[in-house]
Amino acid sequence: MTADQLKAIISAGLACELLEVEGDGSHWYATIVSTAFAGQRPLQRQRLVYATLGDRIQTNEVHALSMKTFSPAEWASRA
């Protein structure tokens, strides 16, 4: 899987204002800004992202995904 493919999978299942993905083919790092994260705890946010991946986590197609998740307001105020 490529970074572009992973990005397409996540963005197909979650409306993202910003989505950056990088990695080495099995270990991935993502920065995700979505209105869906507003009012959500970190674990709830991770579950939303993992839901977009479906069984790709169980089958090791995506071995590891580390993510930083922000609502648009959090992203705007992080500077």
Strand content: 25-35%
Can you count the helices?
Answer: 3
Q: How many individual domains?
A: 1
Q: What structural class results from the helix and strand content? A: alpha+beta
The total strand number stands at 3
Rg result: 12 Å
Please state how the strands of the largest beta sheet are arranged side by side.
Answer: 1-2-3
Shape: globular
- In N-to-C order, the SSE pattern is HEEHEH
Please, what is the average pLDDT? 92
Please estimate the helix content.
25-40%
Secondary-structure arrangement, i.e. CATH architecture: 2-Layer Sandwich
Short overview:
This is BolA family transcriptional regulator. The protein has 3 helices and 3 strands. By secondary structure, the protein is of the alpha+beta class.
Can you tell me about this structure?
This protein is of the alpha+beta class and about 80 residues long. It has a single domain (about 5-70), classed as BolA-like (GMP Synthetase, Chain A, domain 3, 2-Layer Sandwich), CATH 3.30.300.90. It has helices at about 5-15, 40-55, 70-75, and strands at about 20-25, 25-35, 65-70. Strand 1 and strand 2 form a beta hairpin. The longest helix is centred in the middle third of the chain and has 12 residues, at about 40-55. It holds the Pfam family BolA. Belongs to the BolA/IbaG family. It comes from Acidovorax cavernicola. This is BolA family transcriptional regulator.
